[in-house]
Structures are given as structure tokens and as C-alpha cells.
Amino acid sequence: MDNFGVLITAIGTIATALFAWKGKKEDTIQKHEDTISDLMKMQNKLVDKLSKQVDELNQEILELKDDNRKLTNENKELRIEIRTLTEQIKQLTPAE
Questions:
Q1: For 35-89, what is each residue's pLDDT tens digit?
Q2: Residue 24 CB-half CA count within 13 A
Q3: CA distance linking residue 35 with residue 40, whole number of Å
Q4: What span, in angstroms and rounded, lies between the C-alpha atoms of 88 and 81?
Q5: Distance of CA 84 to the CA centre of its chain
Q6: Cα separation of 43 and 7, whole Å?
Q7: Alpha-carbon distance 35 to 31, whole Å?
């Protein structure tokens, strides 16, 4: 009978250790899945933030291109005006 008690105790100890190991393994898996989920959420937030920044930069680039086009046209108009004024000055300057 004493051997039977020892056997039952040994089986109980092994079963307890097995259930504890499985529980720890499940906890580890759950923590890993939670960490991966948190990382994915953070990555999505970063992607959204970067996409917004790209959109803002694209808008700024479009505005700068428009400003550049306007300045180029203004520069052309001013060059024409300078040529006209230069010709008028030449006509008003007495020839030597």
C-alpha cells in the first residue's frame, strides 16, 4: 500500500508539473501574440502618420511649383519691361 501512495503522489506531481508547464506555455504564447498585436497597431499608426506627412509634403510641393511658375512668368514680363526701358533710355540719350 505504501508503494501505491508513492505512485499516486508521483503521478499527481507529474500531472501538476505538466499542467503548470502547459499554462506557462499558453501564457507565453498569449504574451507573444499581444506583443505582435501591439507592434502591428503601432506600425499602422506610424504608416498613417507618414502617409499624412507625405500628403502634406505633396501639397506643399504643388504650391511651390505654382509659386515657381508665377515667378517665372513675372520674371519674363520684367525682362520685357527692362528691354523696353533700355531702348527708351538709348533713344533719349544723345548720340556722341
A1: 999 999 999 999 999 999 999 999 999 999 999 999 999 999 999 999 999 999 9
A2: 6
A3: 9
A4: 11
A5: 53
A6: 53
A7: 6
Q: How far is CA 35 from CA 17, 24, 81, in A?
A: 27, 16, 68
Q: Which residue is it, cell 498569449?
A: 30
Which pTM does this prediction carry? Answer: 0.55
The set of cell numbers assigned to 94 is 544723345
Task: Place 31 in a pLDDT band, splitting at 50, 70 and 90.
Answer: confident
67: cell is: 509659386
Q: Three cell numbers at 19? A: 499542467
Alpha-helix residue ranges (DSSP H) falling in 1-96: 2-92
Residues composing the chain: 96
Query: Which pLDDT belongs to residue 12?
Result: 80
The C-alpha atoms of residue 50 and residue 53 are separated, in whole angstroms, by: 5
**End-to-end alpha carbon distance in the chain:** 140
Q: State the cell numbers at 93.
A: 540719350
